[in-house]
Amino acid sequence: MEKVRVTGGSPLWTRPEFATIPFCPGCQEPVASEALLQVLEETGLVGEAIAVVGIGCNSFLPFLWKMDFVMAAHGRPPDVATAVKRILKYPLVFTVQGDGDCFAIGAGSTVSAAIRGEKITIIMLNNNNYGTTGGQMSPTTLLGQKTSTTALGRGGNEEGFPAHVAETMATFKGVCYSARTAVNDPASFQRTKRCLRTAFQMQMEGLGLSFVEIIVACPPNRRLSPLETIKWIDDEVLAEFPLGEFKNVGREEMEDREPVEVKG
Amino acid sequence: MVQRLLLQGNEAAGWGALAAGCGAFFGYPITPQNELTEWFAREFPPRGKVFVQSQSETASINMLYGAAATGVRAMTSTSSPGWGLMQEGMSNLANAELPCVVVLVSRGGPGVGTTRHSQMDYTSATRGGGGGGYRNIVLAPWSVQELHDHVQLAFYLADKYRNPTVVLSDAILGQMAEPLEVKALDFGSLPPKDWAVKGITRHQDGQRRGLSAGQGFFPSPQYPTYLDFMSAFDRKLKAMRASEVRYEAHCVEDARLILVAFGSTARMALEATQAARERGMKVGLVRPISLWPFPYEAIRKLCKSAKFLVVEDNLGQMLEDVEMAAGEVHFLGMLARHEPREQGMVFPDKVLEKIEEVY
Distance between CA atoms of B344 and B221, rounded to whole angstroms? Predict the structure, then answer.
């Protein structure tokens, strides 16, 4: 049974070193973060967890967490997490990245970590634009979506088509788990927690790279109110990006992928 | 026990890293440093140490960043075009104050350049090619033995200052074989790496550790403002300038003309110096071992009695540093290579000719 916290958030939030909490009204990154922190608290993994973030609004988050963290360059968290995990071996190592960080500037790092089957978890917060820099087009911007660099709306011929990252990650043999979730209502919040728990369990069992994409709202850059942004996610974003688990392989299946013994 | 081996410079760097207690290496193939990466691929996994062949030099330097954040001694190596790709990472390592070592086996440039020997990366190594005013300590070995020794010194200096350190090798040093004494060098004690990430339950004080390449941007208890960080960074740079200048001087006491050369080219310059002495000319040599911090003061003192000839395998990069320190400075560069071919080196007799010209 889910443990429901009636008052307050996770005790893993800590007092910020900033003057104010640096998130816009209606931003769902703190909501996704709350799901993450609740999972860490419930699974008892926080003591040995190391978060790796890149650049973007999400890079503010670990400054607000009672947890060790490393902040890296834009797009490079999978490389940094690879080294941390390979050296220390014991901890839960996860990245928190935006969709630009994870699959535009950092696409090479993300895909390469998947190819190598690094025993890390990549959490991609997908808000369909570059939030921190003022709402420019990102790889997951919808067709027709207006951003500050697609003033007339994203057109497929000129600007390409939305990238389906969770589905793409599922195609790599080194990836044991890939899911897309959202935090647009209480039920999806609970589903997000289940997905994160599964992803972390698989990492700790050493099965491979686990990936969770979380759709989050970015109202100011969408030029919509918080509630209108959630309605837009319900009606349009989820139509383009269906929620669900695209890969969830068991230990036996991953063990079949063990490299064959090399004679020689 | 001292182990004596006949080894290439590239492999000597690997043995030096092992002697220094390096625990992780990340590398991407590029000529002329491949023997170095291959050495780690061969020697590290059987010893339980980490080797990863990365997908790019950009990845190598960021893996190095992650490794250094755990407190382990970690290293990468590359050559000139890869060095270009690593500059953002070098800047971030400097900002996050993460100690690590990069062995740069330079080749001809700019751009893809050639795989032949050159000293074309002097400026980018000593000035810092990434964003924002940081400096790398740069050591310039001139022999296979020194490559081995300097990698160990580089790890010590990196830890001492929490700053990346570069060992600037080149295609000649990397590829040539010389006798090597493999031994661990002791440079003294270092403070514990209490700042490394491990997970909060593994810290004695139970407090979290956060390592960020955004120091100055994000307020921290240590550096509440950007200026607090810049002041501390300035103190660090000044401390390195004050304490880490290294050079060798040969026959400079009575010299009328002093050659300044580093790395493999200093070997040619020394031979020419000796030949000039045999001809009765008062010629000396200064070999900067730390290219940053550069031995300005030593050269400034000598310039009262001598003029200078800079010898280097490029179009004149260290030349600018010598000009900053000294009065009359002449230059002999790669265009004066002995053989008018791509592979030619600056030979001692070319240097001697120039000595006779400017003496």
Answer: 55
pTM above 0.80, yes or no: yes
Average pLDDT over residues B249-272: 97
Calpha distance B162→B286 (Å, rounded): 29
Contact call for A82 and B72, based on CB within 8 A: no
In this predicted model, what pLDDT tens digit does every residue of A12-41 receive, in sequence order?
998 776 666 678 999 999 999 999 999 999
Q: Are B78 and B87 in contact (CB under 8 A)?
A: no
What count of other Cβ atoms lies within 10 Å of the Cβ of residue B46? Answer: 7
Task: Locate the chain B residue with the closest alpha carbon to A82.
Answer: B63
Q: By three-state DSSP, how is residue A191 classified?
A: helix
Per-residue pLDDT tens digits for A107-134:
999 999 999 999 999 999 999 999 999 9
DSSP 8-state secondary structure symbol assigned to residue A262 = P
B56 CB-near residues (< 8 Å, 6+ apart): A108, B28, B85
Q: How far is CA B155 from CA B138, B147, B241, in A?
A: 12, 12, 17
State both tokens at A38: 């609740």
| Interface with chain A: mutation pick from B65, B194, B195, B217, highest number of A CBs within 10 Å | B65
CB A72 within 8 A of CB B54: no
Inter-chain touch A83–B209, beta carbons under 8 Å: no
Rounded CA gap, B3 and A262, in Å?
A: 32
How far apart are alpha carbons B314 and B192 in whole angstroms?
Answer: 41
Task: Find, in chain B, the residue whose alpha carbon is nearest to that of A112.
Answer: B55
Which backbone phi and psi does B335 adopt, to 5 degrees?
A: -75, -10
Q: Which of A50, A73, A81 sits opposite B199 (nearest CB)?
A: A50
**Whole-angstrom distance, CA of residue B359 vs CA of residue B348:** 16
**Max Cα separation, chain A?**
64
Confirm if A223 and A229 have CB atoms less than 8 A apart: no
